[in-house]
Amino acid sequence: MKDHQNPRRSSRISKLSVLGVIVLALVIALYPLPYYVTSPGSANELAPIIHVKDGDKEKGSFMLTTVRIGKANIPQYLYAKVSDYRELLPANEVRSDDETDEEYNQRQLQMMQDSQHAATVVAYRKAGKNVKIISKGVYVTGIISGMPAEGKLKVGDEITELEGKPVKTTEELLKKLAGKKAGDKVQLKVLRGKKTFMKTVALAKFPKKLSQNNEKRAGIGITYPVTDVEIKVDPPIYIKTSEIGGPSAGLMFSLEILNQLTKGDMTKGHKIAGTGTININEEVGPIGGIQQKIVAADKAGAEIFFAPVSANNYKDAVKAAKDIKTDMKIIPVKKMDDAINYLNKLK
């Protein structure tokens, strides 16, 4: 006599097996790893983003370049290991242990705003226009877990006074707190949204992992404090960057603003991408992910790419350009004038 398997039982086992495979696949796909993965982003034209009132038009374009970044799961981790233009970064290199997603995003957006301010000041001064810089207070963009500020201050708060005296810059705040010791209390005037209130916060020693050379420095426990700056210029300027974060578009912002402020077209009809921070001394600083930005710019059809010289950015950019066999010219820049001088010689 032959044994016969119950068809209902067989069907049930089959369904459970499929369900098990689905659950396993979800676990593998969603299980977070202590890494972030970066990949080539996009190259975005700046003319639609930046608008100087009655500004000059351009036939070509200046473009900012971006890098995509996200938490790595197992498939992304494995893919990054075998991909030339996907990079794995340990989580603690991207953000501190105590930094939440909200705090990280706030810090990136604040850095973008600071970059816009520096770029605006540089471009307007270069064009011979008047610029007025007004410092208004200090933004809280991060809070250290276990420190006194936790539960009393929030990311996005703006400190405008300490002990009844105005605090307009990060340097002022740090200087005033430097004279205090652990256990001291300070009264802060805080702007949160449209509401202003007073808050008393104690000082405490920083955790050992955040102290340098076992220093016994004390503080209230905020990280990455940033000065709230208002820039007044004529003609007026409007910049809309949506959710793009970070400071790396400074150089390209400056070039686009200057091009709109002055007669003639600096692009001369070319598609020009680039990257690099900029400060009010017109110095172009290094950024991360430049090889991925080379890929993004090439895909967007850029003919020229400005790359910072420092921190091997230029060398890495040239290496990536050769690797992907692009015809895009990679131009090294230390200061904004290096880019301007190159553009002046363009046909």
TrEMBL record:
Its EC number is 3.4.21.53. Gene3D superfamilies: 2.30.42.10, 3.30.230.10. GO terms for biological process: protein catabolic process; proteolysis. The chain crosses the membrane at residues 16-37. It catalyses: Hydrolysis of proteins in presence of ATP. The keyword Transmembrane applies. Residues 242-346 form the Lon proteolytic domain. Residues 108-194 form the PDZ domain. One of its GO terms (molecular function) is ATP-dependent peptidase activity. It is an enzyme of class 3 (hydrolase). Keywords: Hydrolase, Membrane, Protease, Serine protease, Transmembrane, Transmembrane helix. InterPro entries: Lon_proteolytic (IPR008269), Lon_Prtase (IPR027065), PDZ (IPR001478), PDZ_sf (IPR036034), Ribosomal_Su5_D2-typ_SF (IPR020568), Ribsml_uS5_D2-typ_fold_subgr (IPR014721). The active site is at 248, 293. Belongs to the peptidase S16 family. This is endopeptidase La.
